[in-house]
Specification:
4 copies of one chain form a homotetramer. By secondary structure, the first copy, chain A, is an alpha/beta fold. Chain A is built from 11 helices and 18 strands. In chain A, helix 5 packs antiparallel against helix 11 and helix 8 crosses helix 11. Strand 12 of chain C pairs antiparallel with strand 13 of chain D, so a sheet runs across the interface.
Chain lengths: ~400, ~400, ~400, ~400
């Protein structure tokens, strides 16, 4: 059983607390902090939490709690993490870890120096679909991963501070790109070094300073490419999808808008449909159990199990740091209009990324080379039932087809 | 915390135990029974269960356990439940409750007479999607429910005893119809009396005595209709879908084959894909977290919470009894070829089902009646942008249309 | 090139004419009939048709047209077809052929006696998806067909006469059941005799005499089962789906509501979305090219090509007659509450339906029998990666499983 | 009726000819050219074409044909178009128009100087779904378009010459990017100037010189962004999807892999499933009528109708030229690693793109500004049923939320 101090009482704090108190759960939030005493008190009452506080340090130092969960605005992550590390407490921090890689690195060093358990609360890597898809990838079902697209778009965030670049550290990229980048890393391989990033971003709709729409590309040392699409301008709800391509297969995940639950109502629902749903009539697409589908349940289980077992969780502060470094490169690229190197002062993966070159034909997918002279390109069933195979002649470079 | 004796070590016992030990769960299986000592011992080892037994009575009487979970073949439910009731233990029994309504009624009376907590383990009513859809129905999003279709089909069960009509009490209807019937009751209203059933069943493919395919209809006192489709002849995996129609709306649920997880693999998975999946290559449709998506997590949470709170769970032995009564009528109908009355010696719902008649026009869906003379039938947007409204003249009975 | 007289100017006449004049089409509607001269004239103007008439006989006798298309209310089909046959004209009649099998048989005999080309305009059998699925079935992709479900439901028809049982011959069954029954026949095999029908029907919502919701089952001589679901009470648009199961496979067709076209609009469309669409905001599901997706294009191509080639079209008046005979049995069953024989005075298919019995195990799907003693039931991949095979012992009837 | 000379007998020529001869079509291919006399003769026989030729000039000069359709490898487009223009023939050219903008401009000038009718055969803009979606966009259903993603990926082309960069002019970008770019232009507005392009491309799998995977971004003068994803490395069939976002709505189109036709077969199909389908067993996703779904039918109808009506077709040689200019910029960007200007020597759209700035709040989507001091950002339904609205204070720039 873990005894937890929850820092933050917004939507994130609510989702986290609800998850931790979960179905027949053994863990317990024992203290909650909010800047506003009223909000802290009210939250404690709602969630049957014994103690509350409006003093950050006091909440963290609560001697009857072992774990601090940081669910605060981005500009307070650093302070909270540093206090928790100093206090020798296990600390779990919501995404993004820092507003910049520099902040993230400071936090990483603080917990490592203090020797406390630390976890990076990147929930979307823990959705049950993502966990199972990652297992398939590890089992080789997709072959070598070539491309991973992750998309998170919706009509805009739910809390005011997200919209304020000073507090949040940026716009849609900091808010959601962090999810997408880490999903891409997980599929492509966390030990493969992300080397360069390109990013387009713009403020297309909302009267704010930060970008409300961005598209980014991340080049990996092994030639794989990550792609993210984030937006606060999307209409129709919360669009949360991943697509992954490899030499042997494909995975498509839809986490929110098309999950096998479709409802038409002319009368309306009389309430909440789903996070960031728009409208209450017509065709609606609710989600079964949101905290589960969004990965919170499996995330906290991994975090607390890891702490009990004294092993690293699946998502560490180091991962959070890498994500921040990629985001930093994206913002530089938005300004420079070109690929920007991803600066990783600390790199703990493979040195040269184990780049496998595409210079030997796609052998896995097709028949063996014909003798020594032809390289296989593609095999295809034709409308007339025959099979066509296309080769390249190694000597002449000419393309040849054979009908079988 | 609940201390549980698990009876049965097949796929059901495995799913149940895995769920109870769940993610950060506080409950614990402390004893496991199997007819085979080897199997019991092995299961105990796998799931870190302290005690095991090959003696049913001994396992039930274990003084260090408070809850008995029956995950045995159908023909042993009655014996196990009666022993648990005698022992004063809380008892949770898998579906179907009995092989017949008579058996179920005996079990219902035993637990009620003994005053023990009892729950009916009808997992598919507890899938997160079903729970949320039921809430929408209660909120009026679908208006008055007219029709509920529930479908469960796959290539055939995983345990030998299902195929043996003596042990199981029948074929696909007993195995899966019980799910579908109870899903229909939940959507239409558990207090509405099911009055008549019609059923077609046949042995189309497998060399067995029992039906491997059946389609049934259940008439309710308020005019609503339940429909079930069950089969052991379906190819393509486990097809688990519900569709519900009401005067104001529609719900479509897909629990297994199309849930937003799609994978193509030319290489194969190297293992298990999903329950009753067929094939390991090409397009596959895995499920995120099976025990969650199939309702086990929310079912056991409700059961054990209800026991702690001394309230009835959502699914009771009485529900199991009603389901058995409907199944009995279905088997009679398969033989007689006609509607058969559903015999309910004990009925605890509304007396005349609160039948609402369809004699006043579909007011909710359309404009108010035109004066006193016209009944509204339908309103429709035409390709040219105008709106057509169709009425019936009360006096003459003639149908009239107006273009607006 | 065919010169056509169009009888009827409602939605059907409009869809038919639009299709016949299609994209770069060579055929031409040269005369149009409506009871109302204004409507006839207006329709002629809209569709660039030279001649129009408000006199049925005159329109049919037009010497410059070779083909008569009947797009009239059901109660006028017989008169129109008989006039066309008398006039020696090719005649294409919309669905259902008659209001009863007796009417249909009279029409069938009239065209056969007159020796004129006749086609039954059952468009939903001609949707491009259905045509391709039928080809797959003929190629054996699904093995022996066991079950075919066809569903057509929407909020109610667009023309007033559909709602009037005298003119239409019934309610939702006559209106849409005719489609579903013929789709079932096509998948199961037109030469297989439909022997018995069972039907539930009710007036659940609308203040009319006829049924606005019905579910029917059709038993075929070879043991296959057809299922139809028709309703004028469905909310959410036009639900048009077919599902077919065979010993080797499954087909799912969605013709209208989920075809790969999804749109969210907060602003609205400013017009027509799709046939029977409900609402203009929120998530909408338009269809690409309606007359194509609903089968009109391929239907008229087959009809007119068949006439040119002096062969029978895919759908003949005989098919229309069989459908009417099944509908008649359904209405009898609605009253009797039991299976009713399908009376076919004229039967042109296989005599005993080529019933293949399910008495030899599902050999195609599994491994060969083990020696002479075991019958194969099922093979399944287990979560631990091993394979389980279930057999029945021929001698003892006992069920046995082997783990491989 | 059009009399057509078909140049090319590959898959494109086959699809084109099949479409032109279509269902009850009035047009006719009267001459066919292939470099190989055998292939030309065989093609003529298969498609009932009177004349054939292995001499390009002779085929184009055929005095009994009025329209020349160019379905040849990219490196012969220019020659064929110039000959047709010289001959005063109407000419329809497959995509891409040229291998470079320079080639395309030469062709554009040739047909304009000769005054012949010319059409650009960009079929994917003509799919029935795309045509209807474009109409919705014109009707304002999506508001101002912000983003258009178009994706075409598959395991590699069917004809050898595509793989040869000299003949085709490049790899996946030239082959499929041309489709995606033009789809983007259609949604964003053809009169809006595309100003800059960025592109990543790599040879990830196949042993060829050209890129087999690319991702590109196109910036438009009004701030909208086009995105394309093209690949010859995708596994699972032909993935052909478009997604469009605007201030008021969203459109998702799936043209090939998920169109409402799903089939499982354990037995196999015994033949062709769909263009570029992989595998013949398991879950398959055929398409109803391929030439229709891929836009060929509506494309040729528009082209030939436009010629008859002496109006421009929807897709002109000028459009082909703009697409080539974007592709040229993409290749430059692949090398430079930065945004590259799109060089359009000839620009026929709006001068400054009618850029609408995002500086006034998203008024259409939300409530009007609160007095003069607050700018609307977002409105959201909360889980507790209340509504939260987020504003920005004009004076202070601070973000404020109100709970209603």
């Amino acid at each position: 059983m873990a005894k937890i101090t929850m820092l933050g009482t917004g939507l994130i704090g609510t989702f986290y607390t609800r998850t931790l108190h979960g179905l027949r759960g053994r863990d317990k939030v024992v203290n909650v902090y909010s800047r506003s005493p009223e909000r802290a008190k009210e939250f404690a009452r709602e969630h049957h939490i014994t103690r509350w506080s409006a003093d950050l340090k006091e909440a963290i130092l609560d001697t009857d709690s072992d774990v601090v969960v940081v669910g605060l605005p981005n500009n307070i992550h650093r302070e909270a993490v540093l206090l928790a590390a100093q206090a020798g407490k296990a600390v779990l921090c919501t995404k993004p870890l820092g507003r910049t890689a520099a902040e993230a690195l400071e936090m990483l060093r603080a917990v490592e120096w203090a020797g406390v358990f630390a976890g990076y609360l990147e929930d979307l890597v823990y959705t049950p679909k993502t966990l199972k898809a990652l297992e398939s990838v590890r089992n080789g079902a997709l072959g070598r991963i070539l491309w991973a697209r992750s998309r998170e778009t919706h009509p805009g965030p739910h809390s005011p501070w997200f919209w304020d670049a000073e507090q949040s550290g940026g716009g849609a990229i900091v808010d959601m790109g962090c999810h997408c980048i880490e999903i891409g890393r997980n599929f492509i391989g966390k030990d493969i070094r992300p080397v360069e990033a390109f990013c387009w971003g713009a403020t297309q709709v909302h009267p704010i300073e930060a970008e409300d729409h961005a598209i980014g590309l991340v080049k990996y040392a092994n030639g794989a490419i990550g792609q993210f699409e984030v937006s606060w301008t999307f209409r129709g709800g919360l669009d949360l999808r991943d697509e992954v391509s490899g030499t042997e297969g494909t995975v498509w995940l839809d986490h929110f808008l098309r999950t096998g639950f479709e409802m038409f109502t002319a009368a309306g629902q009389g309430g909440y449909v789903a996070e960031k749903a728009e409208g209450q009539k017509g065709w609606l697409f609710p989600v079964g159990d949101e905290v589960h589908e969004l990965g919170y349940v499996h995330m906290f289980a991994d975090m607390l199990d890891a702490r009990d077992a004294k092993r690293a969780p699946m998502e560490t502060f180091y991962d959070g740091y890498v994500v921040n470094a990629v985001i930093d490169a994206c913002y530089r690229s938005m300004n420079s209009g070109r690929w920007e190197p991803i600066a990783l002062e600390v790199w703990r993966g493979k040195e040269e990324g184990g780049a496998e070159k595409a210079d030997k034909g796609n052998e896995a997918a097709g028949p063996a080379e014909k003798g020594d002279t032809l390289l296989f390109l593609k095999k295809e069933k034709m409308p007339d039932g025959r099979t066509k195979v296309i080769f390249k002649d190694k000597a002449t470079g000419r393309i040849v087809q054979k009908i079988e």
